[in-house]
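User: I'm curious whether this sequence folds into something compact or stays loose and floppy. Could you predict its structure so I can see for myself?
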Amino acid sequence: MIEGWGSSSMETPRDRFIAALERRPIVGRVPHFELVFFLTMEAFGIVHPSQRRYDQWDQMEEGERELHRSQMADMYLRTAERFEHSAIFLHPNPGGFEETVRLIDLIRERSGDRYFLMMHGDATFEIPDGNRMYEFSYRLADEPEAVKAEAAVMVDRALIAAERYAAHGGLDGYALCADYCLNAGPFLSPKLFSAFVTPYLTRLIRGYRELGFYTIKHTDGNIMPILDQLIEANPHALHSLDPQAGVDIAEVKRRYGDRVCLIGNVNCGLLDTGTEDEVAASVLYALHSGMPGGGYIFSTSNCVYTGMSLARYEFMLDLWRRHGNYTAPAGARPKR
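Assistant: Here's the prediction. I'll summarize afterward.
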């Protein structure tokens, strides 16, 4: 066990991550993870799997695929160990269920139950890209029932897939990564969101929970106009509580900290272009606001993306190691 991660030699980072998701008391360091850590080239000399070209996957010999899987598993585990991540977000290779479980099994063979494993599992409408934005908007007005039927089918398919993963074992949960909001607010008004997203998000999360999975709902942007609906959908956690869109983690904690775990929310913009003093203030504000009472996991307000300074991310982690520790079960506020 890495010093500071827990109060018992029997605890793993996964145990502590789950305790935070369940808002149970912990002693020691606040769990940490990043939805994606893209700086693998700078850290390890390896391109992140999601940035590789997969259009030649079908042309690979099985031996080449096996080497690729092995390198992926090694990269995920090296990242988690070096940067003290409690969870790993998987980017599976092409090949559907069979290929994905091969990666899950390989990571479990090498690390046991040390890390919480998750992958993308959203099946709700997100902000459409520029090519589909007008078409989608017109459909909401012209054929609302057809859009709702499509939303239901997407959830059905996701839950059928989840049943197979539950039966196989090894996967702990899903990150629901459909983005709903821009910096100014949700793409859909709260009324439209309640018609075309919330019922399906709620059913998706309920289905995942019934299968034994944990759910982390991710969306960037200003979630405040739909925050109550996100809470009612009953995810285990919310990520990323975007401060660049005016989301105040302290306010979210005050309103809903007894109902949902919060994950975030060190300002990515400041990590990229701010001063060290500004980064330190953002780190300490996130810890000070998120830690009281438990139910908090430390992370950036999005991910560690390509172009961010690795040294600046490590500066953030140094502050977390010094200030992100509970001296009593999920109680004391971190020192400023």
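Summary: Confidence is low (pLDDT under 50) at residues 1-9, 331-336. The first strand starts at residue 28 and ends at 29.
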